[in-house]
Specification:
Two copies of one chain form a homodimer. In chain A, 58% of the residues lie in helices and 8% in strands. Chain A has 171 residues and is mainly alpha-helical. In chain A, strands 1-3-2 form a three-stranded antiparallel sheet. Chain A is globular, with a radius of gyration of 21 Å.
Chain lengths: 171, 171
């Protein structure tokens, strides 16, 4: 997911070359820092969830379902909320169903298909894991910024998140 | 990968409850903005690589190999560089080998195993795709910040990246 900075000497002539808006060194270092933090942080948070026998995607499902009305969501909506394909989500939910964390059920009278429900065990698991997880998030991310940095980054990132959300459904 | 903010009313008594350093609203909104941008951006960049028949992980492999001496790396080092398990990387390299982008070869006299080489086709593919990819990165991320925001975020993220890199090898 990186953008290669191509040295002038390496660059073969190409039609688009002249117009390509390569990143400046200043932009490049920020882009790489973002990628590295995003990737390494996910990796570290995953590692610290392992003692709880949860993948980071499992934890995300627990959080999303726990915040949904009646702690359940349509599978299609859950796929959208977690940015997964339906088939991939289906595999994940099967694993989580086997672990007793969620339950797949048809909703009577609703032809729009299956729901995933958070089980009591799933809810308890999230409650038990959340304190450790929030400590991980603090130790490796949040507590490493000043309050001013937190606010500045929120101001910077928030419109980008909105832009990207707006692109979601579009072809 | 989210941190659930538990409302006081929802929270069952637990041993760790009193000491749990839940995120404040201010911290929470920044954490969610970061997660959302990281995830949605990866999703959008992936979508925009699809016309090139490249997954975002494939593009990353092309970039990493193109920057390596002789455009090759040991499979174990490549797994480390891309934060993947060896088995997962192996599957990916098999796919990319079938697409003619890389080549797996034993290095004579080196008992430390297989190398992945970037093929000429892999190199050309990266050169061809990079201009589009950098435009995507600009449109959805870099150009959405002021120069000051770029510098501030680099200053904030860079020590976090360093911290996380330092944790990588540790058990």
């Amino acid at each position: 997911m990186d953008t290669h900075t191509i040295d002038a000497a390496d660059t073969p002539p190409s039609q688009s070359e002249e117009e390509t808006p390569w990143l400046t060194a200043r932009e490049q270092r920020m882009w790489r820092a973002h990628l590295e933090v995003a990737k390494l942080l996910e990796y570290q948070l995953s590692r610290e969830l392992q003692p709880h026998n949860l993948a980071i995607n499992d934890y995300e499902i627990l959080v999303v379902l726990s915040e949904a009305p009646d702690r359940r969501m349509r599978m299609t909506d859950l796929a959208t909320a977690t940015l997964q394909s339906k088939s991939r989500l289906s595999h994940q939910i099967t694993r989580m169903e086997n672990a007793g964390l969620v339950l797949r059920q048809e909703c009577p009278g609703d032809r729009r298909g299956l729901y995933a429900h958070l089980t009591e065990h799933g809810w308890e698991t999230m409650q038990r894991v959340a304190p450790d997880h929030v400590r991980s998030v603090r130790a490796h991310f949040i507590d490493r910024f000043t309050p001013e940095q937190l606010d500045d980054m929120y101001q910077a990132l928030s419109p980008v998140a909105e832009h990207l959300r707006g692109l979601r459904g579009k072809p």
